[in-house]
Amino acid sequence: MNTLLFTGFCGAFFLWMGFPNDALSLPPLVLLYPVALACLGLRAPDRMAAFRYGWLTGIAGGTAVLYWLALPVHDVGGLVWPLAVPCAVFIAACLACLSGLFSLAAHALRGWTTFLSAVISGIFWYLLEETSALVLGFPWLSLSGALAAWPVMIQAADLVGAYMLSGLWVMAALLCFLPETPPRRRLVGVALAALLAVYGVFQLRNHPFTPNPTGENSFAALFVEGNIDQNKKWTPALQRKTVEAYIGLTQKALAVNPDEKILIVWPETAMPFFFDTSTQYAPLIRNLAAQNKKALLFGAPGLKKKPGGQDTVFNRAFLLGDNGATLGYYDKEHLVPFGEYLPEWLKLDFLSALLQGVGTYEAGTQARPLRYGSLALGMLICYEGIFPELAQGRVDDGANVLADISNDNWFGRTPAARQHLYLTALRAVEQNRWLLRGTNSGITAIIDPRGRLTLRGDQFVETTRLGRAEYLQGRSLYHRIAPWLLPATILACLLLLLYGRRRKR
Fold this sequence. Notes:
single chain; alpha/beta; Nitrilase/N-carbamoyl-D-aminoacid amidohydrolase; 2 domains; six-stranded mixed sheet; 14 helices; 12 strands; globular
């Protein structure tokens, strides 16, 4: 029992150390987390114990990584800490079910050859991460999301996607570090890890780091961080101050670069009013774009009038042309539970404060790129940046640049913003696209198609950032095979299981 407890503690520690945290992060250590889960499953006396050990380890590690989820529940929702903290633990417990299932699978594969069990376990890890996105809707603890802080380790995401890349690294880690692995099989694990690393080095060298591209497809982007207090900006008294702050920061930055063709980017819900119906503030914003002859991308609530019924509210991204006219808008389609809507069974009064002061959002249905000249912006709003299928859809629709406007102000000075940044960086590698990330309080960034940050801002400062990016047309191998990857992997897993059972008999 003491050995199992120690293994579980080490597994939780490795998960925490792998992701950005408040102390010291070392991304490759996250690969020892599935190794610890496998060890728990192999040493558990029965199936229920295997699941339980993996689940408890997942709760401990997940809570350490995701503790910041309690902050908006306390600071915005108004719950006292004894009630807010269990909210973070609850979400960690839901995600930990996947860890429990992985330990259970390791227990079920006892007695199989180490090579076959490692391959099946790696595939199973991929399926668990895919399930986390499709079923739980919160794929925050993807191993590739931790590894993204070291771009050399995620380059194969352009071949197989972030989730399958996690599975390949799990295969390598199990073959290298499981105590039961014979020396000859360890060499296979080392070879797989070396292959992934060599491919990463090749891709990074083949695409030199270029923070300021100047080719014919390049363009400049001006990011404005208002650093506006989320708890106050929705009050009518501060709406004008918010508008004036963003206009003033933008005008000051444009005065330094008056002649360059620039795309101005303001963050998610930068404007705390209904832009479509505003007669007081909307003209000021349109004039800013028209007078400076610059396109402007920004977030604001959108409103759709329903005759005889309740109006529909959207979390919307607007694109204004250089004449101030609206070129298009995008309504966020993947909403954040408890932040932008409440499930029907949890519509309680004390949770209504989490709805950002503008009511319940509805999911959008139109995801076409926002176009300005040669630019086709594939829009992702905040949380949407962690979902591969959304970025896949944007490129399918013709996006040549990905744009993510976000707001991590809710989580204060915690690792949440860094974790979110690296999870979003995976979309650039998967889709072979530059990614623009504009935020209210940081971390603003430009990410190149190899997942490197060519521009990175600080947090909680009122400032502007000017950078450059490129629009691209080529599609990655992952983009082409993504629709068939999941069914093909399920089929391969079933065939391997049948083969393994026959061989065992």
